[in-house]
Amino acid sequence: xxxxxxxxxxxxxxxxxxxxxxxxxxxxxxxxxxxxxxxxxxxxxxxxxxxxxxxxxxxxxxxxxxxxxxxxxxxxxxxxxxxxxxxxxxxxxxxxxxxxxxxxxxxxxxxxxxxxxxxxxxxxxxxxxxxxxxxxxxxxxxxxxxxxxxxxxxxxxxxxxxxxxxxxxxxxxxxxxxxxxxxxxxxxxxxxxxxxxxxxxxxxxxxxxxxxxxxxxxxxxxxxxxxxxxxxxxxxxxxxxxxxxxxxxxxxxxxxxxxxxxxxxxxxxxxxxxxxxxxxxxxxxxxxxxxxxxxxxxxxxxxxxxxxxxxxxxxxxxxxxxxxxxxxxxxxxxxxxxxxxxxxxxxxxxxxxxxxxxxxxxxxxxxxxxxxxxxxxxxxxxxxxxx
Length: 387
Hints:
Layout: H1 3-23, E1 24-27, E2 30-33, H2 35-61, H3 74-94, H4 108-131, H5 138-163, H6 175-194, H7 200-225, H8 233-239, H9 245-253, H10 262-289, H11 307-332, H12 338-358, H13 362-383
Antiparallel strand pairs: 1-2
């Protein structure tokens, strides 16, 4: 089977999996159409039509075009990140206003499903548009699948914030934070996938994966809130080991019994940087021992050619954060992940600033890996907590 055919099969499977949640529901008689989800999906397609019209108007009246692969036009990049990304996410949000009031919403999870439906409709229309404007190949198929998963997962998070309040209006605890996160990281993911070279696709993979995993955990939490908990396999897989999002929020935001020690935050930042440098040095040494050519990594290099060095370096970089978070939590005898998380945050911000001084475009790569690194640091600190 040729590359394009494999990519088409993968895209079809991913699309079928995503569409199953918002459009169908299981009843005693079998499966039936979930009307609020179907309506939200249709409104998501219409929302993309509005976004497409705005893009055409900006191109005709202002001369601002979307950034293409390898583009260095700062105006186009800024337009995509600071105008199109907030606009698209707002349109996806607007698409659920009417379905959210439907009487067909019977469980907390249904509120999250209609948010996913709006994002899926928007992503399907955008995918169709991209397929008509450029020749299809395997790399494009991977990019389209990753972009769709990223936006559906990130929109599902603000859908989770709305749904867990059991309300039929926009808002709720955590809605603002999750909406801003969807705007920022959705824009970063699309920029890496469609405006940079093939190598940037690898930088988007951890961001997309973490967003999808978080959405699955949020889905499990909402199913637990239902009067009749679901027994579906995905919930069973995540039920034992993964803490709930509310437990993570309490561990991160609760006030510790003793004042927050500034010295542990500063020490945590130094520990994170030290472990990170050690892991990078170790992965480079391992790569040279195994014949991995790190000099072959270039933004213009092919997707498969850059796989080995980037996966090796990415594993070393991201693997440093849970280890450093665990060390700081154990050394400080912390009862919350606040101090290790703040220490990791200081280290991440410092690294992003240094990347920006070295190469401004590298800031986008740093932002893509920042939430993954922060989550891994919190996970390591969670394991090392004094209980």
